Amino acid sequence: MPKTSSAKPAARSLLKVLGVAFGIAIIVGNTIGSGILRTPGEIAAALPSAGWFMGLWFAGGLYALCGAMTMAELAVMIPKSGGQYVYARRALGEYPGFVIGWTDWISVCAATALASIALGELSATLIPSLAPYQTRIAVMTTLAFTAIHWIGVRSGDRTQQLLSVLKTLALLAIAAACLSRSAAGDVAASDAASDAAARTIPSGMFFASALVLSFQGVLYTFDGWNGLVYFSGEVKDPGREIPKSMMWGVIAVTVVYLALNWAFLHVLGIDGLSGEKFAAVAAAKAVFGATGERIVTVVMAVSLLGNASAILMQAPRVPYAMAEDGLLSRRIATVNAGGTPTTALFLSAMVSIILIVSGTFQTVIALAAFFYVVQYATTFASLFVLRYKEPDTPRPYRAWGYPVIPAIVLVGALGFLAGSYVTDTANSLHATYVVVASYPVYLITRRLVRK
To answer: Among candidates 307, 364, 317, which has minimal Cα distance to 343?
Structure first.
């Protein structure tokens, strides 16, 4: 008598109930964290003028948009929840898919821990008496969003839309308040004054190096634009709604980033912004006085709430998809009546809480920067592989400017991967060792699951 297949369909499946509003909300929530409020000063310090500064942020948005519209082809062609793991497995095989899946999942769990820890720290900043309870607040934040997402995908959808709208309005309000204030001279005049004062401007290879490193910093703040692909199997009309959501989601993030950076320049000028560790606080203090820091802290808290919700909502989709494909225990593919992969959700929350309590999330985050670049490069390469291997597979949406634009984003990802070895050699090597060590883990897991 033949054995029962371990790939037996689950009693319940994910629900196809998500639309464009959720798609935009998850991209905004997943992308905009605290980075945009912190990093502009570092970027400005490496560049010669406000023109270069704003141009680099615009270029970052354009690169993210090209990447999103490239990845959208895969998300529509293979409308299955699970993120970039799904495309790597289809294009490159089971083991490459396993590597992308588990490194992505661990990285996302660490990002959840980071957002929750940051919320705990912000709580202590707003209410000093909460300082001894920062870790508890971080754990409670994770548990609260776990409960919301456990109820069902519709609950997560509504929560994410609300938090993303609040976040966007709060950030645009800061930008508007800064722009309504008298400028710190005219921005152009500020540039001229900077040049006249012999502002240090790198040249030749030094300038090229500074430009590349600055662009990496910009792209880091855009990371998260791929958030919707984790939910492809739950979108009502993937062929129409996924490309539209990814396009408008990235555009929305870019508009917010450009507005904030222009506002910071308007208030501080390029010299005042340059090297500022917390650009938003400096600008807010100039506009609101002593209460500026408190206002920015509240806005950061709202932003991070949306960030934590989005990341935790996407995390379980990766092990769920791997379990569906027989790479993890079938029990991890359990789905409740609300359309939530419950076992995968609880497992993701548990790992995030362990990282919070142990403090090891910082180590994982350091490795995750490398993993993310590998995942992007693998996904963009998968597009070319699948165009070659499966030319006749229906593609309701095709990537913009193929093969030129997909090649540009792939080369960009490979360039940043090489740059990681140069600028962060130790963590890049450690991450490489983790990838190499994953092969025996894959063999053991496969044997246990398929017994």
So the answer is: 317
Neighbouring residues of 89: CB distance < 8 A, sequence distance ≥ 6: 96, 97, 98, 100, 101, 325
DSSP codes of every residue in 97-152: HHHHHHHHHHHHHHHHHHHHHHHHHHHHHHSGGGGGGHHHHHHHHHHHHHHHHHH-
Mind listing the pLDDT tens digit for each residue in 388-419? 999 999 999 999 999 999 999 999 999 988 88
Give the count of beta carbons closer than 10 Å to the beta carbon of residue 96. Answer: 16
- The pLDDT confidence band at residue 434, using thresholds 50, 70 and 90, is confident
In a domain, 6, yes or no: no
- pLDDT score, position 202: 61
What's the pLDDT score for residue 451? Answer: 72
Q: Name the residue range of residue 55's domain.
A: 20-449
Nearest one of 319, 389, 107 to 226, comparing CA atoms: 107
CB 339 within 8 A of CB 150: no
Q: How many domains are contained in the chain?
A: 1
Mean pLDDT to the nearest integer, 67-78: 98
346 within 8 A of 146, measured Cβ to Cβ: yes
Does 188 map to a domain?
Answer: yes
| 333-345 confidence digits (pLDDT tens) | 999 999 999 999 9
